[in-house]
Amino acid sequence: MSREMLTQKNYYIDSDNQYVMDEFVKGMEERGVKLLESAAYVEKDGARVRFDMFETSILHPDQGVVVAEGRVRPQYSHTRQYRDHHRRLVEEVHRLSEQDHNLLVALNHYPVVDERIKQLQGGRYVWRDYDLIMAGHYHGGQIRVPFIGALFVPEPWGQRGGMLPPRNRVSGLWEQADTQQYVSRGLGASNFIPFLNFRVFNTPEINLITFENLSGS
Predict the structure, then answer these.
(1) What is the pLDDT of residue 215?
(2) CA dihedral angle for residue 146, residue 193, residue 36, residue 126, rounded to 10 degrees
(3) Structure letter (DSSP) for residue 73
(4) Phi and psi for 117 in degrees, rounded to 5?
(5) What's the rounded Cα separation, in Å, for the pair 54 and 30?
(6) Greatest pairwise CA separation for the chain in angstroms
(7) What is the C-alpha end-to-end distance of the chain, expressed in Å?
């Protein structure tokens, strides 16, 4: 199989059937940017923050490859190389102690909408006591109308298939089921609908979130 046939942003399967990190991602890691696939820690002033890759952290090791409805499945998810790698990541998170941090932050490309939170808390998945979930994907609604808000977000879990989404769920901070979530409007625009690849009445943003007094001192 060629790299062109089996490729995605993070890895590819080379001509020797090895699961190889993409050169761009490898170069970013060499420059100090970590690809979050399972969990990572940051320590600051005596406090320890754990960052979980959300879609990995909610799975049991024996569940195999599970992709949520409406989410992108890697092109080669059927391969042994991908499944072995996926299982190792899930096992990594599963072995971690839930008392090894002062703050637990989950990162996800997709916001975790209310309907999906209810499903995840139903027992089949591992729902952790996340202090915060951080996501993007919506671009703040991308095309917004004054006094109405976002016309559409690409969200199959939402009501009306993402049309006219609730204004308090498109961006910013919200809380559902005792879990806070912050969704950034981010930069650029989505190509979900190619001819609407632009923003209207929607200022781009880069967010700075400050956590205070994590050590409890």
Answers:
(1) 65
(2) 80
(3) P
(4) -60, -40
(5) 24
(6) 57
(7) 56
